[in-house]
Request: fold
Amino acid sequence: MTGGDITVGALAVRYPGADRPVVDGLDLTIESGAFLAILGPSGCGKSTLLNVLAGFVRPTTGSVTFAGRPVTGPGRERGVVFQRDVLFPWATVGSNIGFALRAAKVPRVQRHDRIAELISAVGLAPEVAHKRPHELSGGMRQRVGIARALANSPRVLLMDEPFGALDALTRQQMQDLVVELWERSRPTVVFVTHDVDEAIRIASSIVVMDHTGGIADHLSNPLPRPRPASRLGEFDDYAALRRRLHDLLHGQQAALTSGEHG
Amino acid sequence: MVSAPARGSGALRSSGVPTAVPLSSAAAAERRRRDRGELARATLLSALPILSLVVVVIGWDAAVRFELFSARLLPAPAQVVHAAREMYSDGTLFADSVASFRRALQGFVVGSLIAIAVGTLTGRSRIARGLLEPTIQIVRPIPAIALVPLAILWFGIGEESKLFLTSLGVFFPVWVNTHAGIAATRDDYLRVAASLGASKLLTFTNVVLPGALPSVLTGLRQGIATSLILIVASEQSGVTEGLGFRLDQARLFSQPDRLFVCLGALGIVGALADQLFHQATRHTVRWAKEQS
Reply:
C-alpha cells in the first residue's frame, strides 16, 4: 500500500426511506495510479460508491480513506467528471475552466495560460475558450468537463459514466483521451460504466459489483496497451475476459431483477 | 472516365464537390418575386403596432362623434391631445410624471433589495426558510392596496407611507422569484463547485446567483409594474404632485380629458421603465433562452 491509495472498508450506504442499503459490506483497495473500472447492472450502487469516494454521500457505516486520511467531504485532490453535462451554461468554456482555478486561488495572471494549456490537453481548439456550452457538441462539452476536473491536477479522477450519452465514435475518441491523460500524469482513475467493452478498453483492473451492493469480482485486465477499438477482438485474452464479465453481469442482473420482484 | 458535367446541370464535378449553378431567368424572376413578397410581409408586420394604435384612435374618435358615450365620460382624442398640451405647457405633466417615477423607483429599489436578501436567505437556508416563510406567506395574499390605511396609520400621509406601501408591494414578487431561483440551484452544479474546493462565497457569486438570475429578473420586472400600480394608489392622499394625485384631481373636477392624459402618461412611464429594464438586462440571461 502506498501514500495515495484509496481504501474502502465495510462500506454500507442506505438512503433515507429505502428498505435496503444500496451498498452493503463493500471492501475495496484502489492503489495509487490505478485505472479501475467499476461495472455493474443498473441499480447496483456503482454511482453511490463513486459519490462516496467523491465525498458527496456519507457512508451509513464503514470507512473510506484517501492517502490514509478519512474522506469526510469533497476535496480538490479528487476531481469528478459527471454523467450529465454540468458545465455552467451562463459562462464561457474559458470561465468554466477558470472557475476551477479561481476555486484553487490560482493568481489571475496565471489563469489565462493554464486555461489554454488545459483546452489543448483535451484536444480542443484555442478559440473554444470563448464559446458557451450550448455551442458545443456533447463530446466537446465532456472534454471541457474533463479539462475543468483536471484543472488543479487532482490525484484522483472519479468518472461517473461520462460517455454514456455520446455516439459510438465520439465515445471511442473520449476513451482514447482519458487513457492518454492517465498515461501522461498517472492519476488514480475510477471509472464507472455499464459497458463491458469500454471497461476492457480503458481500465487496468475491473470491479464487478454484485446485486447486494458488494463486490462480485475484482479482475485485473491482462490486455496490453494500446488497445485500439477496432482491433480489440484480436487480443488473445479479450474473448475470455469479455465472456467472464458478461457472465458476471448477467448473473447479477438476474439476481437484482428477481430481488425486485421477490 | 468521369466527364465534365454540363454547365448549369447541377451535377457533381469530377472532384465530387457539389457546385452552385447560375439561375435561369425564370428562376431568378421567381426568386425576386418571393423576395418582394417577404419584404412586404416584413414591412406589414413591423407596421402592425402603429396600425393597431391608429385603428384604436379612429374607433375611439368615431365612438365620441356618434355619441356612443357621453363626452363627460369619454373625451375625443383631440380634446385629450389639447389637455396634454396644456399640462405640458404649464409643467404639471412633466413634474407629475417625474414625482411618480421617483416615488416608484424609491419603493422599487428598497423593496427589491430587501426581497433579494430575504429570498437568498430563504432559498439557501432551511433555518431561515422555517423562520421567515410562514409569516411572509400569510402576509403575501393581502393586496398591498388594502394596506393603505395601515400605512397612513403607521407613517402618516407623507412620503414615508408611500415608500412603505410601494416597497412592500414590490417585495413579494421579487422575493417569490428570488427564492424560487435560488432554491432551484441544480445539485450537480453545487457538487461541481464543492469538488473543485470552491469557497461558499465563490459558489454563491459564480454558481447560485447566475443560475437564479433569470428568475430574479422576472421578479424585478413584476416589481416594476407593481410599484407603478401602488404609487397611483398611494398618491391619492397627502401629496400635491404625482400622476395619482392628478388623476384624483381630474376625477374630482370632472376633467376626463386630463384623466386620460394621466392614464396615458402612466402607461408610457410603465412601458418605458419595463422596456428599459428588459433591454438593460436581457444580455445577462441570454444563456437561459439559448439553452432552452
Residues 6-77+154-261 of chain A form a domain with the Rossmann fold fold (CATH 3.40.50.300). Chain A has a mean pLDDT of 92. Residues 33 and 188 of chain A are 4 Å apart (CA to CA).
